[in-house]
């Protein structure tokens, strides 16, 4: 079993913790990790772009001039694509970019991401994260003590003091154990996890 140090909020090592090899020491599947990231980015796309085709642009019902004898090229409508104010030829329409991954694939991708973070020593376990009040300065001090800048902070409970204190730090994101995903794990340089959150992850994904 892999062993990681456990730190307190002052950044001092207060113990160690065993990590479950079936989650934090799996064979990394880069393809599934890539697919999980692509899926999340695709699912986040609104897909609301829209332009009008010639059938949707108002006006142009009448033929602008007669077919022959004017010296102009023949035209059937002033809303044809070659006219200013005309429709777009292959106009984009609202669409759904999302696609699905199997549950097993999602779990394997998440385990691969967690394993890579542990292998690169970017996985920091904290005995607890508790703040007396909502204060960004106090939370920033904790990160400084842990020598962390850009971090995903995984909590075991939705502690509003911690969540709101971290909200104003642009390089930090908080998440619960049931909302962590591959994209966020890879996006942030460090994953800071409470000891109780590690237990929850091991209980759910083992």
Automatic annotation (TrEMBL):
SUPFAM superfamilies: Ribosomal protein L4 (SSF52166). GO terms for molecular function: rRNA binding; structural constituent of ribosome. Forms part of the polypeptide exit tunnel. Part of the 50S ribosomal subunit. Belongs to the universal ribosomal protein uL4 family. PANTHER family: 50S RIBOSOMAL PROTEIN L4, LARGE RIBOSOMAL SUBUNIT PROTEIN UL4M. This is Large ribosomal subunit protein uL4. It comes from Pseudobutyrivibrio xylanivorans DSM 14809. The gene is rplD.
